[in-house]
Design goal:
Layout: H1 6-9, H2 16-31, H3 34-66, E1 80-83, H4 86-89, H5 98-103, E2 107-109, H6 111-139, E3 147-149, E4 156-158
Antiparallel strand pairs: 1-2, 3-4
């Protein structure tokens, strides 16, 4: 590889190594802070948790729920055609799948996907609640904080609060 001549070497900044090291130190200070690492680990765990819950809902919960319907399709495949597409409007056959109806330009209400997502939401919420309860039991530090209504403004506040954060009234009766 050809080397730069002495005249060309003066065009490069003389402190490039120090500036590069300084930039690397700044990056590591930013990237390796405790809260950034905690967020990264939390996102990775959340992604894995979402995959497990999605599989649980799709493979375990939804098949029995889809048996409620008279047809033998999966719950995700349930849909209602609100307006026919071009092919069916010209006397074509009935739509067999949701994708077929959408590709034809039909206006469809995919109620099966909606029900599937609602079930997934409740399963995720229940799983997170169970995790919070187990953590509270194991660590003797509850994640689920009890709340009560303020006697004066009726807004919800922590049961351990001495003053309401909304109306600033004392909760132990000091204000009479």
């Amino acid at each position: 590889m050809p080397r730069l001549e002495d005249a060309q070497q003066t065009l490069l900044p003389s402190n490039i190594k120090a500036r590069t090291q300084n930039a690397w130190d700044d990056f590591t200070d930013f990237a390796l802070r405790d809260n950034v690492l905690e967020v990264a680990v939390g996102l990775i765990l959340a992604t894995a948790f979402t995959a497990v819950v999605s599989s649980f809902v799709d493979d375990i919960i939804l098949p029995p729920v889809s048996l409620i319907s008279p047809s033998n399709n999966n719950l995700d495949a349930k849909f209602a055609v609100l307006r026919d597409g071009w092919e069916r409007a010209r006397g074509g056959r009935r739509y067999a799948t949701l994708k077929e109806a959408k590709d034809d330009g039909a206006v469809v209400m995919a109620y099966g996907e909606f029900i599937s997502k609602i079930i997934r939401l409740f399963v995720i919420a229940l799983a997170l609640f169970v995790i919070a309860r187990v953590y509270g039991w194991a660590a003797n530090d509850s994640v689920i904080k009890k709340q009560v209504k303020c006697k004066y403004c009726r807004k919800r506040i922590s049961e351990k609060a001495k003053r309401c954060v909304n109306c600033t009234s004392w909760q132990d009766g000091r204000e009479g």
